[in-house]
Amino acid sequence: MSQIAFKLRQMVQKMWFLPAAFSLVAILTVVIAYATSGLVPDKLPFTLSSEAVESILTVLASSLLTVAVFSLSTIVSALSSASASTTPRAVPLIVGDRSAQTSISVFIGAFLFSIVGIIGLSANIYSEAGRLLLFAVTLAVVVLVVAALIRWIGQMSSIGRVGETVSKVGSATEKAFRTVPGDGLLGCRRLSGKPSGEPVFSRKTGYVQHVDLSRLQELAEQHELLITITSRPGAYAAPDRPLMLVAGTLEDDMADRLAGAFTVGTGRTFDSDPRFGLIVLAEIGSKALSPGINDPGTAIAVVSTLVRVLAERPVEDSDLKYERLLVAPLDPDDLMADSFRPIARDGAGSIEVMLRMVAGLKTLARCRPEMEKAAKGMIADAVERGLTAMSAKSDKAALKAAGTLK
């Protein structure tokens, strides 16, 4: 994915994009109805007065403004609830929920359509044919609004809820693993041994959100370079932390051009960073185990989601596309630490959570051979934390028995 495509994708996920697009379509619809009215014969079997169409548009305008404000306030409440009960890192997924954005966009777009239509009727710019076309479009808008209202009623029951948020983060993590399958080589050559080359540093401080691999490959081919990517999406970037190591001759502006292939932002994103999804899930589970919330059931649900995501992630790496780029594979130990260490730390005193975690880690050890060593190491770590935190002898015995590796 190029940088332009990545930035367009980020823009499309913003809360304002769909309402703006629907509003533009609404205004264009009214304009088209006026422009095409000349194609319809002036003498029609029946006519509609301006007052008849205007009354319908007035009802839409007055009611949809209230509905749109109510819907936006519901979204704000859902974001606040999700941030307080789960983690602020999950909020972008709720903001980017396409179904919720579509409903609100229909309300705002229909409101603007009504306003522009009323202005046109008040200015007497529509002929009889134009009013008939405007009336037909208004009926279609009413149908869209009713459908959006029905859909919105169903969405309000789940948006911002803990279970729904866990599901959204799990789906985003699965999607990220499909983008970065297998060992996460991203179509590059596997790095074996210690990397070498001249370091190229970031011009900004933040997190790597995207790497334009096609651009790097093109520059490497043109200038006979071999590039080792040391900062994959999700890595922290700073002027003293190299983005890559380059073997070859770097011209005066080549370092800037190479660094320009990295998109650095203030926060991590889910798109090409599956580890971020695992971290967010672990944060939700860890927060559920805090004394103020004390919800081990949510932590168990998070553990189940983590096990499913890791067990079902794609095995095959993408084909070699960038032969002049090298990247280190994803470390199974990092995946285990991101996923389970926070829950093992904060849930060490809960026998229910620890037993479910140990069972899930055993599943990963059996089903994913490449993660067997890391999973067994995390089992040992979890058992040690649990035995230290638990006071009941029966709980210790149950955990010790569950953590026995055969």
Automatic annotation (TrEMBL):
InterPro entries: DUF2254_membrane (IPR018723). Pfam families: DUF2254 (PF10011). Keywords: Membrane, Transmembrane, Transmembrane helix. It comes from the Bacteria. The chain crosses the membrane at residues 57-82, 103-126, 132-153. This is Putative membrane protein. It comes from Devosia subaequoris.
